[in-house]
Each structure stands twice: as C-alpha cells, then as structure tokens.
Amino acid sequence: MTILYNGTYPGLLSAIFESYRIKARPTRIVPEADWRGSLFEEPLVVATRSDWAERVRAGVVKKTSKKGERMLYRCLLSEQPDVEMLIYDFVRQSMKSKTNWADNYLDDTVLRLQQIDKKMGREIHRMHAFVRFQQTRDDIYYAVIEPDFDVLPLIIDHFEKRYPAQTWLIYDSRRHYGMFYDQQRTEAITFAEKDHLNLRQISASILEEGETDYQEAWQKYFTSTNIPERKNMKLHLQHVPRRYWKYLVEK
Amino acid sequence: MNQKTQEKLEILADAAKYDVSCSSSGSKRKNTRTGLGNSTGSGICHTYTEDGRCVSLLKILLTNFCIYDCAYCVSRSSNDIKRAAFTVDEVVDLTINFYRRNYIEGLFLSSGIFKNADYTMERLVRIAKKLRLEHQFNGYIHLKAIPGASEELLDEAGLYADRLSVNIEIPSEMSLKKVAPEKNYKDVLEPMGYLKTRIKGYKEERKQIKKAPLFAPAGQSTQLVVGATPENDLKVLQLADSLYQQQSLKRVYYSGYIPIPTDNRLPVLKAPPLVRENRLYQADWLLRFYGFKVDEIVSEAFPELDLEMDPKMAYALRHPALFPVDVNKADYEMILRIPGVGVKSAQKIIQARRFGQLRFEHLKKIGVVLKRARYFLVCADKDFLHLGWDPDTIRSQILHADPKNRKAAQLSLF
Ligand code: SF4
Q: Where is the signal peptide (chain B) (predicted)?
C-alpha cells in the first residue's frame, strides 16, 4: 500500500500513526506533491494531525532519545528518495526494541539513517561556517545559500542565538525560500519569481556604504594569513570543496 | 574604514600567522538578548587558508613593533620589515564587523612588546574589555598573556578572554637561550602557573555560585616550534605531556619551523618539517584522547616518531603480542588501540555489540578503515591470520598500498 502525506515531518509521523491504527504496512510513503498517479493502486491519503504526530514523536523520544528523534527529522530534510520508508522502519523497530534501537549499528536501516544524518550534519556545519552576510542600506544582514539538502530550517536556531539583535535574512536560492529574522521571531518567506535571489547578485546599490570595505578587508586578511611555504591545495580543497566557493567573499 | 586600516590589517595579520593556533573551541559563553555572538563549545572554521589551516578567528597582532630580538620571530627588532600598530578602536571595529558578517568566531590578539610587558598587556586587555562591556560581544576571545605582565592585568585578561596563551616556542631552555637571549623558561612558566591557579579557583567558585564570573573558560594553550632547534620528538612530547599534566593546558600546538629569511642563529631549512609536525599532532591526540602514555609512543630506544606511518600504527607494529584484538570481546581501551579505529568507531562497536556479533561488513559500515585495521583485529566471520603477522611485512604492505605513503617513502630516499 502506498501512503501519501503532505511532505512535512508531522505529516509523515501522522502517516506512520495511521498505518499503525489501521494495521496496514505501507510499501511506500510519498509526498503528495511527488505522486504521479498509478493505474494499479489507489493510494491512501493521510491528513496531518498534530496530536497523532506528537504521539509518535514522544514515543520515539521515549524509546530512543531526543537525539534519535531529531535524527529522523534531519533525515527527512535530506530529500533522499525513500527516506520515509527508512524512518517508518526505524520507528517500527524502535517500538519493539527494549534497548535504544539507534545504537544498533548491525541494522541496515540504522546504518543508512546514520549515514544520511552524518551528511546532514556536515552540511549544517558548513552552512554555519560559510554563510556570509552582507549589510544592506536598510540594515538587513543578508545571505544567499544553495545547500545540497534542505538544511535551512535546521540552521536557524544557531543564527538566532548568535545574532539576536541583528535583522537578517538567509535565502535558499535553490529551493526559493528564505528565513527572515526581525529581532523578535523568524519567519519563512518567499519572493515572487522575478525577485528570486541569486548567490552574489545583490546589487551594490542596496548595500550599506561600508559593506564593500569590510569585504575587501576580509579578502586582504585571508591572503595575509596564508603561509605560502606551507601551501597544500589538496588539503584546502578537502576542507572547502569548490562548490562552496561561490559563498565565500574571500574566494 | 580607511585605507590605512586595511594596510595595517595586511601587515599585522601577516605577522600573526606563524602562531598556528586558531581554535575557537572549548568555551561555552551564552549570548544575551541584545548581545552579539556566543561560543558553543565546538569551534567553527569559517574558511581555510590555501595551506589547509582552519580560519576561525581574526588573528592579528596589535603591533609588530618589538623591543626584543628573538631569532625565530619575524617581528624581531633586527628584522627589516614594515611596522604598524592598530588603535584599540580599529581592532574593536574589525572584530565586530567581521563577526556580524559571519566571517569569524572571534578575535585572537597577540602583540610584539612595545615599551614593556605591562604597557602591552594593558592594551590587549582594554580591547577585550571594550568588546565585552561596550559592545556586549560574546564571541570568542583569545588573548596572548605577555610574560612579565602584572598579576592584576592577567586577572583582568582572564575575566574577558575565553582562552589565554603564553608561547614557549623553543622546546628546551638551552636552545631558547641561544635563539632568544633575553628570554627564559621561568618568565613563561610563571604566568602560566599563575593563570592555572586562577582558572581552577574560578571553576571551583562556579560550582558553588552559578553567577560567578567566567575566567578563561577555554583554558590555556601554548605553541612549540619544531625543527628550528635540535630537540627530538621524545623531548618535545615529554614537554607537551608535562604541560598537560602539570600546567593543565588545554592544547599544545606544534609549529614546523618555517625558515624566516636569514637569521644566522638558526639553521637553513629547505622546507618546513610538515610531516613531522603532522606526526606530532597525531601523537598528541593519542595522549589526549586515546589513553596513550608518552613512553608508549616514543622512548629512549625510539626517540623519533616514524615519519612513514602514524604513531598508532607504529605502536601496533612494535607490540605484536597485543594483536589481533577481538572486536566482539575486547574492552574499549584495547579497541581504541587498533590502527584504523577512531574514537567514534570504537564507541559504535561497543554499542552495537549489545545487539549481536559484529561481522566484517558491519565494521566497514561503521567506518573502520579496514585497509589498515584488518591486520590487527578479529571479528565474528573473519580473521586475517592468513595474512601473516610479521611486522615488517605488514609495514611494507601498508606503505605500498597507499599511494600517499609510497610518495613519502620515495621522498625520504633523497
Ligand atoms: S618578544 Fe615576541 S614578538 Fe618580540 S621578537 Fe620575541 S617572539 Fe617576536
């Protein structure tokens, strides 16, 4: 049986809850938006219910740990095909297991989820590192990113804690949405198509006067702090793969 | 920001770059509602230099004017270079604005000695104080503790900085005397010892009173230059170990000596000893995270680290009686000693064992580097006894299996 859900984490947890409730094992769980239809089956569409989602979530926390539950959320945002079934399988096994199923590195599902989670962790860490804000005339600190996975919701917390007294916007130009923080709260925003932002294409006219000076100073710093006698481009590229260069003012 | 500031930045970043530490880890400093920045414990490298080093902090000297003439230092008074000095406000402004743009985790501020120790230290402290109090800056601050500065100034420094460091630089006092006649170990160890007691004192206090102030919460570090003077690895690691044990240092950094044009008190090297430096870091990790003792890594009989292979592998080959290790039975400490098994893999092995017997494929998926590890372990479905357990054979197999090693071996022929 194929289950369709709305693509969100609570949606997926609701779908899992429903499969338990009606005692039916899904063969696939697919976001509604990705469903292409089928001649041979009528999928089950499960609506998102926050009380259901919460019960599954709390159950996973209890059976594994907060970290185990968090892993599922992070993995869902990896946009890997079929990650839903891995999550479903993990929840099912966790409920049966007496010990924390997330520690079971003998199990293929656990191993695959861990691998995905590790990739997510790396991408999150890179975004913490490589986001570069530019200050605009209206005092918004402004950054465009193009992460490999949908990590924007996972990095907000870090920037809220770090820059609580600064208005900022981080925009994912691949997925066309951003997170705007106004020194009170963060909200997801989207721009009309014509206003889609691109990396490094913020026009100089909207930038604060001193902005380019600081960018230049940072470039100079980057060059001066290098030790040519130690040059090791292989190591350099390992740490800063080329696809991230587009973020970096200093590159 | 004017052109002048940018020029100063170029000069004073260039002069500071030989201090290899750039870590922003080990401190937990919460932000406030209206403040700027925080430290979460694990540092972030915001970029990497072309030599592959992490750039986490704005690392600069306040000035490269210096009254001393240490042979190993670019800023030494006899060296004919451009000199510059930042104002307090310039440093504050650069730090705040770089931080706001997410370029850095904070500031690493060192300085040449102008006038005297107190005069210099006072300015370093003033910058940190201004950042903390006027700008509510809660990012990372690493200050150099200037040997000879008053205890009052060191006390103040600790209240604003996350980490303090005094560099030992030369790994023996005899050599130090030769290259920096005005310096001695006592002057370096004194502030280190003083700060150690202060850090400990404040830590105790915080256990009692939660609101007690932080005092250099990321502790102290130091740097040792290797290759400029004749000390062997045994000597260097013994010194590092005593610094960890007796001075409670958080980190010792090793800096392969980069030949700085011509001071005749120092040898002429063609290239910095980067492989040796790397091996020292590996050995340092074994001391700090793998439960190794110095004499297990280097000894009078083997006073130098093996440049061809990492120290853990070298240890395993010197101790054939301890291997192979059965990953399904051995305790954590022993699993950690298998070459190719890191801390994370070792922990996973211990956790996974509760669910059943580990087989070869599991080890692979857990992340064990089997190319190296297989000689040294036994798992449920495989041992590698047929590969033979002759240290020399393993050694040559490992060296030849890895093209990186092959190159290193070739180089060392010349
Ligand atoms: S005192 Fe410090 S800055 Fe001055 S020459 Fe010696 S090492 Fe360099």
A: none
Contact A120, A74 (CB under 8 A): yes
Is residue B388 within 8 A of residue B303, CB to CB? The reply is no
Name the pairing type of β-strands B140-144 and B163-165.
parallel
pLDDT digits (tens, 9 = 90+) for B192-247: 999 999 999 999 999 998 888 999 999 999 999 999 899 999 999 999 999 999 99
Same domain? For A153 and A110 the reply is no
CA dihedral B389, B395, B401, B406 (to 10 degrees): -170
Tell me: the pLDDT tens digits for B290-331?
999 999 999 999 999 999 999 999 999 999 899 999 999 999
Q: Which residue, judged by its Cα, is nearest atom 3 of ligand 1?
A: B112
Q: Cα of B128 to ligand 1 centre, how many Å?
A: 21
- Helix A9-21 to helix A83-96 angle (10° resolution) is 50
Q: In the CATH scheme, what is the homologous superfamily, with its name and number, of domain B3-297? A: Aldolase class I (3.20.20.70)
Within chain B, all domains assigned CATH 3.20.20.70 are found at 3-297
Residue of A nearest to B32 (CA): A164
Supply the range of the domain harboring residue A42.
Answer: 2-123
Of A134, A221, A229, the CB nearest to B13: A221
Q: Hey, what are B158's tokens?
A: 């600790």
Q: Are residues A224 and A145 in the same domain?
A: yes
Whether complex ipTM tops 0.90: yes
B45 min Cα distance to partner chain A (Å)? 6
Chain B segment 352-371 residues within 8 A of A by beta carbon are 352, 354-356, 358, 362, 365-366
